Amino acid sequence: MARNTKGIEVAEIIGDKCIACQICIGECPVAAIELSSEGVAHIDPELCVGCGKCHESCPVDAVSFERKKKRLKKEIPGVGIEGVASHAGVAVFIEVFEGSGAQVSWELAGKARELAGVLNTRVLGFLLGNDVENVAQEAVAFGCDEVHVIDDPALAHYLSATHGKALADLCEFVKPEILLMGATHLGRDLAGVVATRLRTGLTADCTGLSIEEGTGLLLMTRPTFGGNIMATIFCEHRRPQMSTVRPRVMRPPEKDPAHQGHVIPHPWSPPAHELPALVEFVRETGSAGGVDIARSPALIVAGRGACDPSSFYLLEELARVVGGTVACSRPVVESGMMPYERQVGQTGKTVAPRLYIGVGVSGAIQHLVAIQGAEKIVAINSDPKAPIFKVADVGIVGNYVSVLPELIAQLRKRMA
Fold first, then answer.
1. Which residues, at least 6 apart from 189, have a Cβ–Cβ distance to it below 8 Å?
2. In terms of CATH architecture, what is 293-415?
3. S-S: 227 plus which of 149, 167, 310, 366, CB 3.0-4.6 Å?
4. Interior/surface letters 236-267, b for 16+ CB within 10 angstroms, e for the rest
5. How far apart, in whole angstroms, are the C-alpha atoms of residue 67 and residue 370?
6. Are 301 and 344 in contact (CB under 8 A)?
């Protein structure tokens, strides 16, 4: 396989097979593919990160790419293949948020259904908390075949040691083959505790999950080296195979009240001598004035090119018109103009709004990876060669100070 100057093995287009369907262009997470004047897809080898998504999505096998896998040649001392065959089922940790299941849990339930279909196994929900019967029924409606519940007053509020002990105990009893968790603040903290207790592997912040044909291993794909490379990781020797996935990366399934499932309670007695006791609980006040950009249906995102406080009112006005929220890219946070809680990107938040409008956003790979779930992307930039135009549904070339007033006026006219 060909390599670029960074030493990455890259995909290549087989010209006489390409039918110019442009599916690969839409699938490429780094906008490395474009249609040539001859009507054939072309991959820029210097932008390609070797993720193989174009190869997997091509309907006519016009992309040459071979995914090479490195396997451990010998077992790690003290870590053997213990009881792998006895584990079955794809489990999802159901995180409770304000009395209901967190949205990321339902996103993972949909992905778990897909993985379980390949493995011909069942989808399991793991639920911890106090008085969570309604969440258990909600988990069944979102596709769980079995919901295993530990309902105990000690789990009313999150403590890493207490929840870690309870979830690890549940895993040891049910023995799932795969355990998926949301990469939220709680999920990231809890996943590390559970993986350590179970002495298994954990892949964090995944953007893709699939089952390897032949072995049945969970292939966990995540960006690394600042988003320049997509690494696929697997856990061959231990179970469960654990992964955390960022919110808004997976599409949630439709809620189906008719879906049949079983809610299975598990008695649990917390060992008081080794777990902390909650003295006082202080409720979180929220971030950035109570605004969560990951939940907003529309985002107006300011980039380096719109990092001007004197014209910031234009972004706020556009956000009011479309019923959205103002967010930003990393350079805007670094300038001190907006708080970190509003940052979109690999080091900020992954978002999937119905409408994304990037104002002065150039489109660095770390940013593009975080907005790939957006339904519609509109880019406004004075640089016609900005990378964001390659992934945008609509592109406007021009100075945003001139473009935004006209855009706002046109939107108001249509809405009136």
1. 160
2. 3-Layer(aba) Sandwich (3.40)
3. 366
4. eebbbbbbbbbbbbbebbeeeeeeebebeebe
5. 24
6. yes
Find the length of the chain: 416
Q: Provide the percentage of residues in the chain whose pLDDT is more than 70.
A: 89
What's the chain's average pLDDT? 83
Cis peptide before 240 (omega within 30 of 0): yes
Provide the token pair at 410.
């046109």
pLDDT tens by residue, 260-292:
888 889 888 777 666 666 666 656 554 445 677
Residue type, 12: E
Q: Which CATH architecture has domain 85-265?
A: 3-Layer(aba) Sandwich (3.40)
Domain with CATH 3.30.70.20 in the chain: 12-64
Pick the CATH number of 12-64 from 3.40.50.2300, 3.30.70.20, 3.60.20.10, 2.60.40.10: 3.30.70.20
Contact 351, 371 (CB under 8 A): yes
The strand pair at 178-182 and 90-94 is best described as parallel
